[in-house]
């Protein structure tokens, strides 16, 4: 198949790599119900109990329109709970439920295994790759 201009587009290859990484992580986790990005969201909430959706959106690099359905799914699965912030009825904090903490612990082991595979692929270029990805994120944010 001809890719035309896409052959040299970094964004295209970033997306392909992300999709391949998500599929591999899903296979490794053994969970058909795992959606891409859930681990990162659960991890950020677990590390920052009471985090607001706006702060989570910034930390996860997701806009509200894509984060809202993820939070709805995680809440429906009883992985995440929300509690109103005192003094601000429009704001609420997110925390993991007991089931959410269990799921995160399971996924953390699988994520570490998955990252070791990515480390092998990146090899000695890992630090350079992360630096370039961070630079892309910072300059395009």
TrEMBL record:
Please give the superkingdom of this protein's source. Answer: Bacteria
Q: Which PROSITE patterns does its entry note?
A: HTH_MARR_2
User: Which parts of the chain span the membrane according to its record?
Assistant: none
Task: List, alphabetically, the Gene3D superfamilies matched.
Answer: Winged helix-like DNA-binding domain superfamily/Winged helix DNA-binding domain
Task: List the Pfam families hit by this protein, alphabetically.
Answer: MarR_2
The residues covered by the HTH marR-type domain are 1-138
> GO biological process: what's one of them?
response to stress
An example Gene Ontology molecular-function term? DNA-binding transcription factor activity
Full protein name: MarR family transcriptional regulator
What organism is listed for this UniProt entry?
Answer: Aquibium oceanicum
Organism classification, top ranks? Answer: Bacteria, Pseudomonadati, Pseudomonadota, Alphaproteobacteria, Hyphomicrobiales
């Amino acid at each position: 198949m001809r890719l035309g201009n896409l052959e040299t587009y970094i964004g295209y290859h970033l997306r392909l790599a992300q999709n391949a990484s998500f599929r591999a992580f899903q296979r490794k986790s053994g969970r058909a119900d795992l959606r891409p990005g859930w681990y990162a969201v659960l991890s950020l909430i677990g590390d920052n109990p009471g985090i607001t959706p706006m702060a989570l959106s910034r930390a996860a690099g997701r806009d509200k329109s894509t984060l809202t359905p993820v939070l709805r799914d995680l809440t429906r699965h009883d992985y995440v709970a929300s509690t109103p912030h005192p003094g601000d009825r429009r704001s609420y904090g997110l925390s993991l439920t007991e089931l959410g903490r269990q799921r995160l612990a399971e996924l953390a082991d699988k994520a570490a295994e998955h990252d070791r595979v990515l480390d092998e692929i990146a090899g000695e270029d890992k630090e350079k790759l992360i630096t370039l990805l961070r630079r892309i994120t910072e300059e395009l944010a």
